[in-house]
């Protein structure tokens, strides 16, 4: 049996790694250290590489990122090439063989080169759901406000890591983060092991009423889909992102995640199966949104809704939904304004918002086309055909809540055609 000296053993497999395995490294900008674990002596007995890998996996400090090469093809007594993040590693021992000493020789850190891995930054916009009469079936995209995250993926590994660098308070347990069920549903459909790392860089304030949870879910699934080579359509991404909404509200609705992923205005024609229609946004179409410092839970907002709707109200609502869809399809902003009237949810939910009717009267007097509750509240949105009107309306909203001493945050801008996308 041909013996291999340590240098020959170390260098020959490394050439193979550089040729064949380098491209399979995880897509991250970090330093990697390549170490080769070689069994002591020139043994002819093999050992169970799987047991060695299990020992390495169990070490939280030194867990390898990837087992790149099993060296038993180049050395009869085996060996293992691993890439680690850290330079200083604790020694690991292999299973003891009869009459042999346990242990590995570490043949040095062969490289400290910085590898540039693929990773992307993704932006997903804020959204407004319902649009008045379109309860749970319509939503639109806001320009200038949203979530920005960084996504990395490693094929052949598994797991999901979420880091929050946004400064916003988010769940510490990853299982309570909306990104987790959305990405999990996507990877289950993908059918191959992938490790995903998500860093939240900028975040819409949770509970703002402009699609905070939807923006996180949408950005995450969009980013992973890009890194995997776009195996899924936009509609499938919406389905995955809906799982995050189910975690928050108990129901997997798409009126926020739909526009967050696809952009523009969306109509969810049906949920079983999901049938989503993207509508065009008229030129010169603007929004104003106010988020008052009051709390309205989604559960509260749903519990106040009637379980039955009188036929007269249902007919009115159907007519308004038809008019709203036609208004977007035709680019008729006046028709949009006339149709954005809700007789099912607004009359019951407006009681959570102080002075709602007074504010609506003042907003319409400023020239807004329509005003309504954003999603389940407490945020309120208005639409306008002129940017200056949208800015005036936003200031009017701020003044309304300032009078009773309620703090608020306002947003104003253009209704956007752009959904989730890669950014610098």
Offer a few descriptive terms.
12 helices, 424 residues, 17 strands, 4-stranded antiparallel β-sheet, single chain, 11-stranded mixed β-sheet, alpha+beta
Query: Radius of gyration, Cα only, in angstroms?
Result: 28 Å
| Number of beta-strand segments | 17
Task: Report, as a whole number of angstroms, the end-to-end distance.
Answer: 55 Å
Biggest sheet layout: 11 strands, mixed
Q: What is the mean pLDDT?
A: 77
Assign an overall shape. globular
Spell the H/E element sequence. HEEHEEEEEEEHEHHHEEEHHHHHEEHEE
Please estimate the helix content.
Answer: 25-40%
Q: Low-confidence stretches at least 5 residues in length (pLDDT < 50)? A: 1-49, 59-80, 83-117
> Helical stretch count?
12
Percent in strands: 25-35%
The secondary-structure class comes to: alpha+beta
How would you describe what is shown here?
With 424 residues, the protein is an alpha+beta fold. Helix content is 33%, strand content 26%. It has helices at 6-21, 49-57, 179-190, 212-227, 234-249, 257-262, 298-303, 311-330, 333-339, 346-349, 356-365, 387-402; strands at 29-31, 33-39, 66-70, 80-84, 104-106, 114-116, 120-129, 138-155, 159-164, 194-202, 265-271, 274-279, 286-292, 370-373, 380-384, 408-416, 421-423. Strands 7, 8, 9, 10, 11, 12, 13, 14, 15, 16 and 17 form an eleven-stranded mixed beta sheet that branches. Strands 3-4-2-5 form a four-stranded antiparallel beta sheet, covered by helices on one side. The chain is globular, with a radius of gyration of 28 Å. The protein starts with 5 loop residues before the first helix and ends with a strand. 41% of the residues are buried.
């Amino acid at each position: 049996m041909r013996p291999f000296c340590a240098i020959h053993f170390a260098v020959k497999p490394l050439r193979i790694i550089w040729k064949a395995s380098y491209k399979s490294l995880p897509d991250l900008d970090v330093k990697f250290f390549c170490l080769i674990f070689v069994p002591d002596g020139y043994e002819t007995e093999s050992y169970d590489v799987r047991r060695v890998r299990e020992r390495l996996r169990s070490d939280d400090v030194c867990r390898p990122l990837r087992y790149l090469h099993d060296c038993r093809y180049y050395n009869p007594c085996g060996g293992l090439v691993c890439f680690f993040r850290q330079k200083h590693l604790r020694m690991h021992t292999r299973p003891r063989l009869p009459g042999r000493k346990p242990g590995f020789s570490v043949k040095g850190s062969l490289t400290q080169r910085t590898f540039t891995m693929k990773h992307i930054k993704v932006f997903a916009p804020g959204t407004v759901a319902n649009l008045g009469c379109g309860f749970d079936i319509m939503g639109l995209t806001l320009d200038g406000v949203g979530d920005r995250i960084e996504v990395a993926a490693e094929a052949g590994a598994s797991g999901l890591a979420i880091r929050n660098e946004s400064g916003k308070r988010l769940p510490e347990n990853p299982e309570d983060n909306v990104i987790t069920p959305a990405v999990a549903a996507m990877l289950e459909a993908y059918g191959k092991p992938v490790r995903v790392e998500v860093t939240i860089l900028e975040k819409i304030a949770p509970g703002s009423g402009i699609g905070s949870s939807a923006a996180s879910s949408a950005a995450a699934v969009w980013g992973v889909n890009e890194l995997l080579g776009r195996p899924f359509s936009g509609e499938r991404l919406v389905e995955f992102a809906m799982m995050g909404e189910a975690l928050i509200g108990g129901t997997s609705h798409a009126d926020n995640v739909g526009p967050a992923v696809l952009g523009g205005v969306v109509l969810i024609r049906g949920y079983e199966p999901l049938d989503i229609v993207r509508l065009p946004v008229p030129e010169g179409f603007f929004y104003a949104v106010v988020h008052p410092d009051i709390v309205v839970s989604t559960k509260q907002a749903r519990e106040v809704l009637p379980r039955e709707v009188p036929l007269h109200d249902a007919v009115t609502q159907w007519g308004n939904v038809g008019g709203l869809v036609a208004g977007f399809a035709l680019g008729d902003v006046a028709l949009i304004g006339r149709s954005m009237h809700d007789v099912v949810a607004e009359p019951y939910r407006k009681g959570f918002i102080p002075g709602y009717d007074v504010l609506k009267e003042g907003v319409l007097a400023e020239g807004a086309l329509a005003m309504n509750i954003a999603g389940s509240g407490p945020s309120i949105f208005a639409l306008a055909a002129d940017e200056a009107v949208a800015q005036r309306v936003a200031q009017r909203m701020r003044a309304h809540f300032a009078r009773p001493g309620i703090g608020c945050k306002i947003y104003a801008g253009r209704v956007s055609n752009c959904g989730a996308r890669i950014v610098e």
